Queue: 2 jobs
Job 1
Amino acid sequence: MKKYDFPEGFLWGGATAANQIEGGFNEGNKGLNIADVLPGGKERYKILLNPGFDFEIHPDQYYYPNHEAIDFYHRYKEDIALFAEMGFKAFRMSIAWTRIFPNGDEVEANEEGLAFYDCVFDELNKHGIEPVVTISHYEMPLHLVKEYGGWRSRKVVTFFERYVKTIFNRYKNKVKYWMTFNEINSSLVMPIQGLGFSIQKEQDRYQPTFQAYHHQFLASALAVKMCHEIIPNSKIGCMILFAPVYSFDSNPENVMYALQEEQLFNYYCTDVQVRGEYPAFINRYFKEHHIELEIQEGDLELMKEGTVDYIGFSYYMSRTEKKAKTDEDSSEGNIIGGIRNPFLKTSDWGWEIDPVGLRITLNKLYDRYQKPLFVVENGLGAYDKVEEDGTINDDYRINYLREHIQAMGEAIEDGVELMGYTSWGCIDMVSMSTGEFSKRYGYIYVDKHDDGSGTLERKKKKSFFWYRDVISTNGEKL
């Protein structure tokens, strides 16, 4: 097998999100967030898209897996010790906004929440693991959703600024790597989790979505500026969901359509946060969809001053497009749309598996921006079986990860500057898309099931030992 030369200091590790692992949803004076009202199961998205969704908890009607999740809130020492045993150099996690400001608009922060993350960061640092912290990861305070309409309100920028200033000052000696908004561009598909509101009618989608984005871009720029001022030796990046868009064939109409889809989904948010200005291609889109942004004096200057240091991104799949699609063409498993690619296999959940697409992604991003890149999410959601002797032989996961790490190695040889790799769901947790426990990504199995049963016992899968060897050899042994 070909050996790859990963750079010295490469940040090998794993990635999680507070709302998917912590649990303790009503402990430590934490307030409710969007994730706390999301029911579990494959109907999750249909419920969210229902205009009658009321953002309330209905325990008699639904099960809410995020409430307990895998109980990282109480078991973080045990889990971090397992990460250290694998040799993690970095652990990507997020701070739950409502642990710090329970409603989101308070003036004073919640000390219990601040103290919890002090303990987590201290534990990581004790094991020599760099925290890579996402500031906002699909867990907007529910009060800001109900009272202000989410990011549609410019007032939320002020609340976010207060939150960010608080955590930067508190953790400036404990956290070096930061990211602003998780998969910020995903709100083009599902605004509820990233922007804090649902679309009632398709024709009403455009104006509120892009105005809310403008507010998030301002918030991101403010965060970048504050991070550089408060933590001078820090690095702060954006975080996008990147899926390269392929044309179905060489028909120029389909090639142009694929280009336009890629511009909007992959580059719109990234251009603003990396280059500090709106891209030229968006002007026509705004005109055709009757979008007129409310931009105040100083906004564009702030965006220019608050550009990120690196680009963090998730990569799970590519996307294939043609202009005239039919229902028969659709690839239902790919949550970001597109049509079925006949050259690709799919996961248990129908996600198309395309390791070469990761190399394509890395080259596209580096060619466009010449900024350091960081793969902060990538992994395989699959059904895992515990054998009678307690082992979990997840060779399918090892093969998936190996092929994607090889793609990264090839991209580095292509000249791409790559900082690190934190594979998604290093420990089993609640799936964001479906709220299931059975969709497992981890190197560590957690005994927790879709009906809420389970002991929460942790078990090492075969991939645990494989990834330990990958890290210890800096990617030489795959």
Note: The radius of gyration is 21 Å.
Job 2
Amino acid sequence: MPNQFPENFLWGGAVAANQVEGAYCEDGKGLSTADVVKYVPPGQRKALEHALSISRAELAAAISDTQEENYPKRRGIDFYHRYKEDIKLFAEMGFKVFRMSISWPRIFPNGDENEPNEAGLRFYDDVFDELNRYGIEPLVTLSHYEMPVELVTRYNGWESRELVGLFVRYADTVFLRYKNKVKYWLTFNEINAVIRFPFLGGGVLTEGKENEKQAAFQALHHQFIASALSIKRAREINPEFQVGCMLARKLIYPYSCHPGDVLKAQGENQMAQFCSDVQVRGYYPSYIKRHLADYEVSIEMEPGDEAVLKENLVDFLSFSYYMSSTVSTDESITERTEGNLSSGLVNPFLKTSDWGWQIDPTGLRVVLKEMHDRYQIPLFVVENGLGAADVIEADGTIKDDYRIEYLAQHIEQMAEAIADGVELLGYTSWGCIDLISASTSEMRKRYGYIYVDQDDEGNGSLERIRKKSFYWYKKVIASRGTDLTNH
């Protein structure tokens, strides 16, 4: 194995507010888009697509529904009341960084108030102070798959230009409040998700629209502008701030060496990096023009938008990486695999997780090298992990060796990438404590080093239990990534 990770490497874990906090209507918090997404039973892919593209009638019913249906993100894992206990466990593992998000509707319940909600601001003050007690650096996402649902009903989410100013005011509020408590920021989580799932990524209702792509790409443009203007404001408030972008990155291979497969894979990988091209380089890349034309999309820009993008570039590029898949022009190849809000053709050379995600550690090294060559800025792996149905043994232990194997292989490939010359800031594995799934809202798909006693229906004591991987990751951090052995 190559040399150990840099001494200042940021080891830690990641969660999102809407998947852990709960307390969905406490202390003045408004309803979020995550709060109106129902639980999707295992195996119901069609139901998943439905949950991520809600209709207006379903949205109205969800807003008025207080208890009839199962909306798991409303309860989370009660981090809102248990954050001290959880942060203490993170500190026990030796975390250097904790990636979390701020809930926009905790700060501005409807999204357009003149004054922020002080109770919401105080909550994050307390969380940051607790992290600081243990020397853990917060890495804070401003928008992680949630926004005030009122902005959906009033403006149809990010399809409206109105949200740019509202988001920048929200960003300005938290930048000012936490200017001495937070250094690392991300603007939008997996910003490219809005293209495929407009409601999840941007609160956009596509029901009745002739061209859903038009609405999605328009929403994405508004997010680009909001992100750039927030970066501008961040640097005015505290020049020491480091602000990054974040995208979902899945490596796509050609199914075969047929030139058609290679060309198709190249196009898919270009689209996977379209958003980072805009946020790192500061302009729309030339290849996107044909894609937009093919789907009859015409993005409306205001005067000055191009300058805003060009003048406010990100400091680093962060991304999620869980898996890879393949594509082919041969329609007879139909065996598919699932993934992080995506699907693709099966790669016969890879193993598959319980949820159909293909495990490809080498792909992480490929992605790191490609993005380093493309952008020459610091990179940050802010999501990576294995969702699995963990079992508590008779003696009360949880032997998640499968998770240890997955994480060890990916960490080893990060070390190889660093040896290749990649500048990597840190690693925050996803779901460092069990949480509600982003897509299916299920609890049984567990990622954490820490088990949370709760099922898909919300039953359980919420007791926190250290898994075998908890002690393993503690050893990994203490050894700066040199000891990946499972014993």
Note: The chain has a mean pLDDT of 93.
